[in-house]
Amino acid sequence: MMGSTPTSLRRLVKNPLIVKDGLSRVRTWRAPAVIALYLAVLGLVVYLALTFQLAVFRGGFGFAQVGRNVFTAIAEVQLALVCLFGPAVAAGAVSGERERQTLDVLMVSSMTPWAIIWGKLVASVAFILLLITAALPVFATVFFLGGIDFEQFLISQLVTVTTALSIGAVSLFLSVLFQRTLASTVVAYGFTFAVTAGTWLVGTVLTQMAFAQAQISKGPIGPTGPTGPPGAHPLLLISPFHALSSALQNASGARLGLQPANVLLSPGGPAAGGTAFEPWLATVLFQLVLVGLGIFGAVWLLRGRRITLLQRSPAHRPALPPEIEHPTP
């Protein structure tokens, strides 16, 4: 048992699909072009956000607030770029092999369905992680302005990485599910938009609607009416955009009180009788569940295809009588 664990880890690292797909992706001119475009967009966002914030700084803001706002802007843009590039690099991982008629070769090889899915996932997500790593100097430049501590910096990178993993796993599952790359890519982009930006938009609207209903039902409290920000809708806990903004715009992280009534998509907010947690924790847990479900579903579908393929192969045909199998002339 002691020797099996290093062997399993070695097989995970020395996956031939990781080497093949990884090298084929970075050897073309598209890889440096995408990296250059990625860094150019982030650099332009830093320039525009910093220029705007320095103009507002003359009105009384401090450098800490400037640094926090610029860092939040670049983190949100980086997350949007990850959501844009993620389905493009993962949705055609398996369906592309099927279209090139090389999937059956992988299925009858010594590689297991788990090894195939793992190699495709790592090769797809590795390019996104390369983009995130290449942008670290840009984040370091903004980080020195202040307003963001090291813990918030780590949270922003963790949310971005888990978002890339969840998008890659779900896109890979869709690549196994659909026969064509176009169909898997379209569905992957739709799912990504619904889970990231869609939940953020709908959750924000429902939060404002719930707060407006509370104002109408309770009536004014004092001369200015109810005060305080509206409680966050539980649907916002799914969105990584809300997780980033809540973690970066609050020095200690926004905390929510989770009560049984708040689980059924009802307005949330700080509550004394619930379990306090930070929104980014719920987002990361949800994304890890998506990663597990995506990998499990892709392996299950691929294993079923392999069983069907092996049953159709000549090695699994029923044995025929010798006079029929080898007739005499």
Describe the fold and architecture:
- With about 325 residues, this protein is an all-alpha fold.
- The chain has one domain.
- It is about 70% helix and about 0% strand.
- The chain has helices at about 5-15, 15-25, 30-55, 65-90, 95-100, 105, 115-135, 135-145, 150-175, 180-220, 240-250, 260-265, 280-310, 320-325, and strands at about 255-260, 275.
- It is globular.
- A two-stranded antiparallel sheet has the order 1-2.
Q: How do the strands and helices of this protein lay out in sequence?
A:
Layout: H1 4-13, H2 16-26, H3 30-57, H4 63-90, H5 95-99, H6 103-107, H7 113-134, H8 136-143, H9 150-177, H10 181-218, H11 240-248, E1 256-258, H12 260-263, E2 275-277, H13 279-312, H14 322-325
Antiparallel strand pairs: 1-2
Helix tally equals: 14
Largest sheet properties:
2 strands, antiparallel
- What is the H/E order? HHHHHHHHHHHEHEHH
Our count of domains comes out at 1
Distance between the termini: 56 Å
Helix proportion range: over 70%
- Biggest sheet strand line-up: 1-2
Q: Which residues sit in consecutive blocks of at least 5 with pLDDT less than 50?
A: 221-226, 251-275, 316-321, 323-327
Task: Please count the beta strands (DSSP E, at least 2 residues each).
Answer: 2
Shape: globular
Structural class: mainly alpha
What amount of the residues lies in strands?
under 5%
- Computed over alpha carbons, the radius of gyration is 25 Å
Question: Can I get a quick summary?
Answer:
With 329 residues, the chain is mainly alpha-helical. It has helices at residues 4-13, 16-26, 30-57, 63-90, 95-99, 103-107, 113-134, 136-143, 150-177, 181-218, 240-248, 260-263, 279-312, 322-325, and strands at 256-258, 275-277.
